[in-house]
Every structure is written in C-alpha cells, then in structure tokens.
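Predict the assembly for these two chains.
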Amino acid sequence: MKLASARELKAALRDGVVDGMAEALRREGALVTAASRAVARPPVARTLALGIAPGNGSDFKLAVRIQRRGLEDAAQLETIRSRARGEVEVRYVGRVAALARRRAAAPEVPWPRGRARPLLIGVSIGHYRITAGTLGAFVVLRKGGEVRVLSNNHVLADEDRGKKGDAILQPGAYDGGHAPQDRIGALDRAVKLKPRGVNRVDAALGAVDGSIGYDPRTLRGVGTLAGLAKAPVEETRSVEKLGRTTGHTRGRVTAFELDNVVVGYDMGNLRFDDQIEVESDGPGAFSQGGDSGSLVFASDDRGAFGLLFAGSDQGGASGTGLTYVNPFAAVLSQLKADLLD
Amino acid sequence: MPMATLAEAKSAKRKAAQRLTRVPQVNGIGVERVERGYGLKVNLVENVERGVIPEAVDGVPLRAVVVGRIRRR
C-alpha cells in the first residue's frame, strides 16, 4: 500500500484498537484483566505496537510488533490483518526496554503472577485459552480421593467451552504460561453455567499432573489455611483473599444470601442466587480482573469461606467496587469434593 | 425501627424479591447486618425514581445501593 494509506490505517487501528486499552491501563496503573478467553482480552492491545514497514518497491506495509508470546492468534491481530488486506508484517519482539535502562532492575513480577512449584494458593492459573485467573485451593474428590485444583469455571473451563483433558497452565497464558512447559494438569470437571435458570457457583476442578508438587495449606505472606471457616456467613464480618492481580487483600462481608445477581459473561448475563458480597477494608479494591477463583478465607480462623468470581466497579465504602463470592460449602457440594487439609 | 432477627430478614427478603425482581435496575436482593440485627440490601445497576424501592419490608429496614454492572473477574 502507499505510505499515506499505511499511515491512515495505522492511525485508525491505533485509535480503534490500542488507545482505549492503554488509557484503561494507565487508570489502573497495573495489569488488570478479567479471566477471559485470550482472544477477548482487552490488554492484548497493550502488547501490540503498530508502525509502518517498507514493502516491495515503493510500497509499504503495516508493521505489528508483538511483545508477548501467545498473542499471535489474538482476535485483534485478525482484525488488523483483515483491515490491512494482508499487507501486514507481524513480528514477535518480546519486551522492549529503553537501552539505557536495560541493566536497571526490571519491575519484579509479583509472586502470584510467576511460576510456582510447588503450586500455591493464590497464584496465576488458567485454561490454556484464557488470560489468567487464580488458583483457589486444593480439594480431594469424594469418590476416588484424587487431588484437584479449584478455581472458577471461567478460569479452568473457559465458560464451558473447554473439554475434559484440556491443558491447565500455571502461570496462566497472560502471565507467560505456555504449553507444554507450564502445564500443571488438565481440566477435570466443571459445574455447568446455566444461561437460563439459576446458578449457585462458578466452579471447576483441574487434575494435577503427577510430576507437579503442591502445597495445599500455605497462604503465602499470611499464614496457614485452617480447614473450613467455622462461623456461619451471618456471623462472619472480616475476610481476606490471595489473588493473582491484587494479592492479599482484606474485606468485610456486606451482604449474604444475595439472590437475583446478574453477572456478565462472554456467554451472556447469568443469574446467581445465594451469593456473598464483600467490600474492601482498605483504600484499594478487594479484587480486580484476574482475581477470579481466589479463595476467600475468614480472618478470624483463616478457614475457607468462599470462591471469588465476580465484581462491580461501583459501590463499597471506598468506592472501589464490590466483590461477589460463592459460598464455599456450595462449591464443594456441587463439585463433590472436600477441602484438602 | 425495631431490630429484625435473621429469620425476619430472610422472610422479608422473599417478599421483597417478589416485588423487586420486576424492577429492571435491581441486581441483587440480600441480607445485611445492621447495628442491631439484620436488614435487607438491594443492589441497583443505576438509580431509580424515589418510591420505587421501599424503605422497609414488613418492618425490616431496606437499603438500596447503586453498584453498577457486575462482571465475572
């Protein structure tokens, strides 16, 4: 294409695909994305750079530089290829840093987003096609006694699009996890999400490969998980969680037995009943995108209390939104499993 | 307003749900702890006109709060 056309196309794609995402990230000050199908993840744009490359003779092509592995098949790239009618040069360039700062300390990856062996509660995890969510806990199947990792359906089973045996990565793909080297197991079972009718939990289990170690009790930086929370929900005030995006946060239960909660998914709006609502106990949010699947535990006894799965951007004492949690007993009951302790 | 027990709050929640699930802005009806006892909490996607949401149901106080839309995380 001509240089002017390449410039026009680049500007249009930058405005339409890149800038909105960059602004969102500036506001957040950190990587914040819901555990979602990789092709739908907004921060994909954050890792694409657009430019113009010389083509044949006096022609030019659109240059796309990918800064993170795993994005080669992203939907945004398909959009770009289509808009450029194939006159596009895509290259993986990895992380780009100013040369003068190359030897300076790179920003350290927070531990929940890194590779963890043995596996730990609170680390990044996900079905190979999604971005990343959080490993909530380790459970044992009531029938057979095998150990499984617990997280949300939309983290381990890609909203029911995943099949039994699909690879589960730790860290999740968004955090650099790749198959086969970061595979820790495979999707085992999920509680099906109902597009009509009432959902109670967003939960799934992954089998753990034999070579992968796990630590079912350590709440890194907090202490030790102490079985199930002893107090009933109506008597529980203070809770905490360890999550992939916001790490260790504290919150307060603001409502329980919450019915008719409509939650947006890729598959549409789903209704949940009997949910627990939590607000942050500090200046930041109790959870953000990527914290899905986090185990919420009671502050009083560090007992398992719930499974984090959704949130709003408004509400809460600090105005940082509210977090929604499946009661842990319902999660275990529907998955026919018990907490490993 | 007199204190409501947990059982009274749960009963009022069922009644409130029958009325309020028809209000399109309502996105959740639950129980909350209040200073002495329990109340109802109604979550809204956006504000509604005054009078649409009652201040109490069967003597159980009801608090409506705008939480916006809820997304999976």
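The two ends of chain A are 63 Å apart (CA to CA). The longest strand of chain A covers residues 247-259.
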